[in-house]
Amino acid sequence: MATKRVVSNLCKIVAPLMLIVAVLGASACASSPRPSPTPTRLPAPATEEIAPALTQAAALAALAAAKATDVAARSTSETATRAAQPTATLAPTATPPPNPTPTASVGTNVWTSNGPESGNIWALAIDPATPATLYAATDGGVFKSTNGGGNWSAANTGRTAYYVSALAIDPQTPATLYAGTWGGVFKSTNGGGNWSAVNTGLTNPEVSALAIDPQTPATLYAGTRDGAFRSILGGVFKSTNGGGNWSAFSTGWAAYYVSALAIDPQTPSTLYAGILGGVFKSPNGGGN
């Protein structure tokens, strides 16, 4: 490539010089008188005009040759310098690690979503003895995870109402689990493996909240919502035999849509009910 550039540069310099020589020669010939039949010498003035022009052309040619030599030398030097320099090697692109097995994590401003893929999540409950086991109440039923939310599986065998709005775990026997649905309360004694309805005396089956006595787990409360067009009025129901029977406990207030329930863990007879508009408190286990 360097040699081709040198030749190209020489051609660009010498070509105009040859054109100058040709023009000067033509001019000298035009100024000379036509020869007579008898050969005669060219007049001295013509020779004097041509000589300086030829001398100038020769000088220009010499200068062009010197420049071409200099260009060739520089090109050769640059080629040698580039050849001596080490060729840069690009660092290999790091291969991203494969996607890890889904796991749930939590921290300051750090959350990961790992299902379950079943519509809205209305309630969560965690096993107090085995915290990696938790349950989710969804539009499509109850889902269970045994690895901290990494994977979920449906746990709905025996349960006929699928819209689940509340969950409660027996703190002393975590395999006992209650699910509040819009079709009543369901109970499982094997960690969601099977369910059975426990609705005797529950006159309003649209359950929206559950709370269990931490010291006496057989005692639990169910908060209910109003039915369509208030055909059924919301309120609080109480069971003292693990859901075997229920009684209404709404003395002292009008019928309300109960959206949340909470029990004082140190004084379980103190109960709070959250409604659409405020909080009610009972100091005697829902009696008043």
At a glance:
With 288 residues, the protein is α+β, with helices and mostly antiparallel strands.
Walkthrough of the structure:
Mean pLDDT is 77; it is low at 28-33, 35-40 and 42-47. The chain is α+β, with helices and mostly antiparallel strands. It has two helices and 17 strands. It has helices at 2-31, 44-84, and strands at residues 106-107, 110-111, 121-126, 134-138, 141-145, 153-154, 164-169, 177-181, 184-188, 196-197, 207-212, 220-224, 236-239, 247-248, 258-263, 271-275, 278-282. The chain folds into two domains: 1-29 and 59-74, no CATH class; 116-282, Methylamine Dehydrogenase, Chain H (7 Propeller). The strands form five sheets. The chain has a four-stranded antiparallel beta sheet, with no helix packed on it. Strands 7-8-9-10 form a four-stranded antiparallel beta sheet, with no helix packed on it. Strands 11-12-13-14 form a four-stranded antiparallel beta sheet, with no helix packed on it.
N- to C-terminal distance: 102 Å
Report the count of strand segments: 17
CATH fold title of the largest domain? Methylamine Dehydrogenase, Chain H
The CATH homologous superfamily of the largest domain is named YVTN repeat-like/Quinoprotein amine dehydrogenase
- Main CATH class of the largest domain: Mainly Beta
Spatial extent as radius of gyration? 51 Å
What is the CATH architecture descriptor of the largest domain? 7 Propeller
**Overall geometry:** elongated
- What structural category characterises the helix and strand content? alpha+beta
- DSSP helix fraction: 10-25%
Mean pLDDT: 77
